[in-house]
Batch of 3 targets.
Target 1
Amino acid sequence: MKKNFGKAMETPKERNPRRSERGIALITVMLILALVSVLAVSSLESTMRDQQVAGVQMRNRVAFQAAEAGLATALVSVTGSNTPSLATGSIGVAGDYPIGQPSYQLDPNIGTPVENLGAQPAPGMSLNINGNGPKFQLQLWRIHVEGTEPRGMNTRVEAAAAALWGS
């Protein structure tokens, strides 16, 4: 028989206070691990979405550059009263584009992709001395061009151009 020297007898639970906390560390670590996993997955999804958006933007820029190249080609053909022309073409070096080269053409969605806006006198450009001499005019054109990226993304541009010509 044990003697108690003025102390109250302790029950088994009171003797070891850590016994009731057994497993709490495991639960805490599991919750933290789950939180870190959720953060990692959401970060991965965000990165993948950013890459998709960047890819779409890059393809859009390539299509726009193709349309700009077609427009520049059409503007070179603007001379005098002749109607500007543009044959379908492509840009870049084939090796730079492994799945195909970007291309341009007159915009097929516009009824009149090359529109004659008329001619008007070129102010200050007339060399008419004593009623004689050439008269200069500006011939105005509106040109619609479509650029296409190899995966099918299209961009359309429109420009007005003028050609100075004399009669």
Note: The CA atoms of residues 54 and 69 lie 22 Å apart.
Target 2
Amino acid sequence: MSIRIQPFGAVLVLVFALPAWAQSTEGVGAMYRCPGNDYNNTITASEAEKLHCKKVENASVTVIQSAKTGASAASAAPPARPIPAVAEAMSPADSAALRTRASNARRSLEGRLKSEEGRLSALEKEFNGGEPERHIDEFDFQKYLDRVARMRSAISRKQIEIAELRREIEKLPTQ
């Protein structure tokens, strides 16, 4: 029984030691990191030295194939499906639903636009052309200047919001 264990043990040692020995050998098969984070395992140690590559030791590297670029990608790409000149006809129910949704969106945006314009006019009225009335608690002139600066920025933000709402309304289809 001890005779059978010794050959079996030798086989086990070879099974586990052989892959480790194959990985530890120098030369082709070693993983190198070249400038530009280019990983390569198909070059020799002398080529890696010429390219200023560094050997990566005991690091697991996952290789993900990237999409082909350039002329090879154009030739390898499958032909694109032709786009029909005329879009498929929508059912009357679908087009009615789209029109309803667009009109609801337009109505909502127009309501928001009117309220924002009202807020802007109130801010501009209070701003009084850059010279708003001083409050009682603004005995320090710097507090007054800070409030004027805040009002200017609030007015410019409202103007931007109003411009955005108008652009959104212009995107919607008319009836």
Note: The chain has five helices and three strands.
Target 3
Amino acid sequence: MSTQYKIIAAFLAIFIQGVFPASGVFAAESQVTESVPAVQSGNLPQPAAVPNKSANSSAAKPVFKAADYPSLLFTYWEHTAIQDARRSVGTNRAPTEAELTRDLKTMEEAKVKPPPEKRDIRLGGIVYHSSDDWTIWLNGERVTPKALPEEIIDLRVFNEYIEVKWFDEYTNQIFPIRLRAHQRFNIDTRIFLPG
């Protein structure tokens, strides 16, 4: 038996002896302690005193002090981290080297904030004939069903308004927006303005 298992067995024997009385369920504990070779007793904590059941029931119960029982395997913080990991929801996996390299490169390339005038989405006008025959002027550029800007993820054009899902590269977010003609949306303040 390895030394680590001997220490664990001795610790369990002392713990059981301190928690359960000898006449109780674990009366055979003496057999366990006899089979375990002697361990340095100076390193092990003393068992907590068990109150006598026949004594006054209002007697104070012994207080468990974590400092008196040092962990054999993990620190308190390591144990807490393990429990948190076991309770985590979802699938967790380690990132690959390619993902780490890509993320480091994007972090090194600090994104420069575009000027405020580039942070508006403006709808100049709508010419609507049918669901697949229309023209809109978005940010001063002509947009048709066959020529969509790269920032547009989804676009639905109606007679009096448009519904667009706009990808903002600076914040890496998608904004679902409904705009009418001669209306603009400011991405930073997230408000609609005329013009």
Note: Residues 23-36 have pLDDT under 50 and may be disordered.
